[in-house]
Protein backbone atom coordinates (compact mmCIF):
# COMPACT_ATOMS: atom_id res chain seq x y z
CA UNK A 1 0.00 0.00 0.00
CA UNK A 2 1.26 3.49 -0.83
CA UNK A 3 2.41 5.72 2.02
CA UNK A 4 0.22 8.72 2.83
CA UNK A 5 3.13 10.39 4.59
CA UNK A 6 6.74 10.36 3.35
CA UNK A 7 9.90 9.00 4.95
CA UNK A 8 12.85 11.36 5.19
CA UNK A 9 16.44 10.51 6.10
CA UNK A 10 18.51 13.19 7.80
CA UNK A 11 22.12 12.09 7.52
CA UNK A 12 25.65 13.44 7.79
CA UNK A 13 28.82 13.10 9.83
CA UNK A 14 28.32 12.98 13.62
CA UNK A 15 28.00 16.54 14.95
CA UNK A 16 26.51 18.14 11.83
CA UNK A 17 23.15 18.65 13.54
CA UNK A 18 21.00 15.64 12.57
CA UNK A 19 19.27 15.23 15.92
CA UNK A 20 18.69 18.96 16.33
CA UNK A 21 17.15 19.15 12.85
CA UNK A 22 15.05 16.00 13.33
CA UNK A 23 13.62 17.26 16.61
CA UNK A 24 12.73 20.64 15.08
CA UNK A 25 11.24 18.97 12.01
CA UNK A 26 9.19 16.54 14.08
CA UNK A 27 7.78 19.40 16.11
CA UNK A 28 6.89 21.45 13.03
CA UNK A 29 5.55 18.69 10.81
CA UNK A 30 4.12 16.08 13.16
CA UNK A 31 6.27 13.39 11.50
CA UNK A 32 8.05 10.99 13.88
CA UNK A 33 11.70 11.40 14.80
CA UNK A 34 13.21 7.93 14.50
CA UNK A 35 16.57 7.99 16.25
CA UNK A 36 18.35 4.96 14.84
CA UNK A 37 20.84 5.09 17.69
CA UNK A 38 17.96 4.67 20.13
CA UNK A 39 16.40 1.83 18.11
CA UNK A 40 19.77 0.03 17.97
CA UNK A 41 20.04 0.30 21.74
CA UNK A 42 16.42 -0.40 22.67
CA UNK A 43 15.86 -3.29 20.27
CA UNK A 44 19.35 -4.74 20.64
CA UNK A 45 20.20 -4.43 16.94
CA UNK A 46 23.91 -4.73 17.62
CA UNK A 47 26.75 -7.15 18.20
CA UNK A 48 28.23 -5.25 21.12
CA UNK A 49 30.01 -2.00 21.92
CA UNK A 50 33.12 -0.80 20.09
CA UNK A 51 35.49 0.40 22.83
CA UNK A 52 37.77 2.25 20.46
CA UNK A 53 35.11 4.23 18.62
CA UNK A 54 32.63 4.29 21.49
CA UNK A 55 29.65 3.21 19.42
CA UNK A 56 27.46 0.16 18.86
CA UNK A 57 28.52 -2.40 16.26
CA UNK A 58 25.25 -2.39 14.34
CA UNK A 59 23.58 -5.54 13.05
CA UNK A 60 22.00 -4.06 9.91
CA UNK A 61 19.64 -6.98 9.26
CA UNK A 62 18.17 -6.72 12.75
CA UNK A 63 17.95 -2.95 12.40
CA UNK A 64 16.04 -3.15 9.12
CA UNK A 65 13.64 -5.71 10.64
CA UNK A 66 13.10 -3.40 13.60
CA UNK A 67 12.32 -0.42 11.35
CA UNK A 68 10.32 -2.12 8.61
CA UNK A 69 6.78 -1.67 9.96
CA UNK A 70 7.30 2.00 10.78
CA UNK A 71 8.90 2.67 7.41
CA UNK A 72 6.02 0.98 5.56
CA UNK A 73 3.54 3.10 7.47
CA UNK A 74 5.48 6.29 6.51
CA UNK A 75 5.93 9.58 8.34
CA UNK A 76 9.42 8.81 9.68
CA UNK A 77 12.29 11.23 9.97
CA UNK A 78 15.22 8.85 10.19
CA UNK A 79 18.22 10.19 12.10
CA UNK A 80 21.41 8.26 11.29
CA UNK A 81 24.98 8.79 10.16
CA UNK A 82 24.62 6.29 7.34
CA UNK A 83 21.98 5.94 4.67
CA UNK A 84 23.05 3.21 2.26
CA UNK A 85 21.42 0.40 4.24
CA UNK A 86 17.81 1.57 3.80
CA UNK A 87 15.95 0.17 0.77
CA UNK A 88 15.31 2.81 -1.90
CA UNK A 89 11.61 1.97 -1.80
CA UNK A 90 11.38 3.22 1.80
CA UNK A 91 12.77 6.69 1.23
CA UNK A 92 11.27 9.87 -0.28
CA UNK A 93 13.88 12.50 0.66
CA UNK A 94 17.51 12.34 1.79
CA UNK A 95 18.82 15.43 3.58
CA UNK A 96 22.62 15.47 3.90
CA UNK A 97 23.75 18.05 6.43
CA UNK A 98 27.17 19.65 6.04
CA UNK A 99 29.33 21.84 8.25
CA UNK A 100 32.64 23.67 8.04
CA UNK A 101 35.59 21.77 9.50
CA UNK A 102 36.27 24.30 12.25
CA UNK A 103 32.64 24.16 13.39
CA UNK A 104 32.66 20.38 13.37
CA UNK A 105 35.94 20.31 15.27
CA UNK A 106 34.43 22.50 17.99
CA UNK A 107 31.24 20.42 18.22
CA UNK A 108 33.07 17.07 18.42
CA UNK A 109 35.65 18.41 20.88
CA UNK A 110 32.78 19.55 23.09
CA UNK A 111 31.56 15.95 23.03
CA UNK A 112 35.00 14.81 24.18
CA UNK A 113 35.44 12.43 21.27
CA UNK A 114 38.66 10.40 21.42
CA UNK A 115 41.30 11.83 19.05
CA UNK A 116 41.08 8.97 16.51
CA UNK A 117 37.30 9.23 16.28
CA UNK A 118 37.39 13.01 16.04
CA UNK A 119 39.96 12.93 13.25
CA UNK A 120 38.12 10.21 11.35
CA UNK A 121 34.91 12.22 11.43
CA UNK A 122 36.64 15.42 10.33
CA UNK A 123 38.23 13.55 7.42
CA UNK A 124 34.88 12.03 6.52
CA UNK A 125 33.24 15.47 6.41
CA UNK A 126 36.04 16.96 4.31
CA UNK A 127 35.93 13.99 1.91
CA UNK A 128 32.12 14.31 1.60
CA UNK A 129 31.72 10.61 2.48
CA UNK A 130 28.06 10.80 3.51
CA UNK A 131 27.10 13.00 0.55
CA UNK A 132 28.69 10.51 -1.81
CA UNK A 133 27.02 7.59 -0.04
CA UNK A 134 23.64 9.31 -0.42
CA UNK A 135 24.25 10.04 -4.11
CA UNK A 136 25.37 6.45 -4.73
CA UNK A 137 22.36 4.99 -2.94
CA UNK A 138 19.39 7.12 -4.06
CA UNK A 139 18.11 8.94 -7.14
CA UNK A 140 19.81 12.29 -7.59
CA UNK A 141 16.57 14.27 -7.38
CA UNK A 142 15.74 13.14 -3.85
CA UNK A 143 19.17 13.95 -2.35
CA UNK A 144 19.52 17.47 -0.91
CA UNK A 145 22.71 18.90 0.60
CA UNK A 146 22.12 21.59 3.26
CA UNK A 147 24.57 23.48 5.47
CA UNK A 148 24.15 23.51 9.25
CA UNK A 149 26.72 25.91 10.66
CA UNK A 150 24.32 28.35 12.29
CA UNK A 151 20.89 28.56 13.87
CA UNK A 152 19.69 30.66 10.92
CA UNK A 153 20.75 27.96 8.49
CA UNK A 154 18.92 25.38 10.55
CA UNK A 155 15.77 27.46 10.55
CA UNK A 156 15.86 27.86 6.81
CA UNK A 157 16.57 24.12 6.36
CA UNK A 158 13.53 23.25 8.44
CA UNK A 159 11.36 25.65 6.42
CA UNK A 160 12.64 24.12 3.23
CA UNK A 161 11.74 20.59 4.30
CA UNK A 162 8.32 21.80 5.50
CA UNK A 163 7.67 23.28 2.05
CA UNK A 164 8.83 20.05 0.43
CA UNK A 165 6.41 18.10 2.64
CA UNK A 166 3.45 20.27 1.63
CA UNK A 167 4.27 19.64 -2.01
CA UNK A 168 4.78 15.91 -1.45
CA UNK A 169 1.33 15.65 0.13
CA UNK A 170 -0.27 17.54 -2.78
CA UNK A 171 1.49 15.29 -5.27
CA UNK A 172 0.34 12.20 -3.40
CA UNK A 173 -3.32 13.10 -3.18
CA UNK A 174 -3.35 14.61 0.31
CA UNK A 175 -4.43 18.03 1.57
P1 LIG B 1 24.29 15.00 15.22
O1 LIG B 1 22.92 14.46 15.57
O2 LIG B 1 24.49 15.15 13.76
O3 LIG B 1 25.42 14.27 15.87
P2 LIG B 1 23.52 17.21 16.94
O4 LIG B 1 22.15 17.58 16.46
O5 LIG B 1 23.61 16.39 18.19
O6 LIG B 1 24.35 16.51 15.78
O7 LIG B 1 24.31 18.58 17.10
C1 LIG B 1 25.63 18.63 17.62
C2 LIG B 1 25.83 19.95 18.35
O8 LIG B 1 25.80 21.02 17.43
C3 LIG B 1 24.72 20.27 19.36
O9 LIG B 1 25.32 20.89 20.46
C4 LIG B 1 23.80 21.22 18.62
O10 LIG B 1 23.15 22.11 19.49
C5 LIG B 1 24.78 21.95 17.72
N1 LIG B 1 24.16 22.33 16.42
C6 LIG B 1 23.61 21.49 15.54
N2 LIG B 1 23.17 22.13 14.43
C7 LIG B 1 23.47 23.44 14.63
C8 LIG B 1 23.29 24.63 13.85
N3 LIG B 1 22.71 24.61 12.64
N4 LIG B 1 23.71 25.81 14.37
C9 LIG B 1 24.29 25.85 15.60
N5 LIG B 1 24.50 24.76 16.39
C10 LIG B 1 24.10 23.57 15.93
UniProtKB/TrEMBL annotation:
User: Where is it located?
Assistant: Cytoplasm; Nucleus
Q: Where is this region: NMPbind?
A: 35-58
Q: Which GO terms describe its cellular component?
A: cytoplasm; nucleus
Q: Which Pfam families match?
A: AAA_18
Q: What is the protein's major site of localization?
A: cytoplasm
Ligand binding (ATP): 15, 17-20, 111
**What is the enzyme's class at the highest EC level?**
transferase
Catalytic reactions on record: ATP + H2O = ADP + phosphate + H(+); AMP + ATP = 2 ADP
Identify the domain of life. Eukaryota
GO terms, biological process: cellular response to oxidative stress; maturation of SSU-rRNA from tricistronic rRNA transcript (SSU-rRNA, 5.8S rRNA, LSU-rRNA)
| EC numbers, comma separated | 2.7.4.3
Sequence segments annotated as region (LID): 110-120
A GO molecular-function descriptor: AMP kinase activity
Q: List UniProt keywords, sorted A-Z.
A: ATP-binding, Cytoplasm, Kinase, Nucleotide-binding, Nucleus, Ribosome biogenesis, rRNA processing, Transferase
The record's section on PANTHER family has:
ADENYLATE KINASE ISOENZYME 6 (PTHR12595:SF0), POS9-ACTIVATING FACTOR FAP7-RELATED (PTHR12595)
Q: Which family does it belong to?
A: Belongs to the adenylate kinase family. AK6 subfamily.
> Could you tell me what this protein is called?
Adenylate kinase isoenzyme 6 homolog
Amino acid sequence: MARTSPNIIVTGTPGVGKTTHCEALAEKTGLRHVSVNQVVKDKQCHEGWDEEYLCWIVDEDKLLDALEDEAKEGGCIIDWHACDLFPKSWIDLVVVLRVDSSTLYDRLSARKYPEAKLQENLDSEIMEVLLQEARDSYDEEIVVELTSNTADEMESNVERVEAWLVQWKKDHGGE
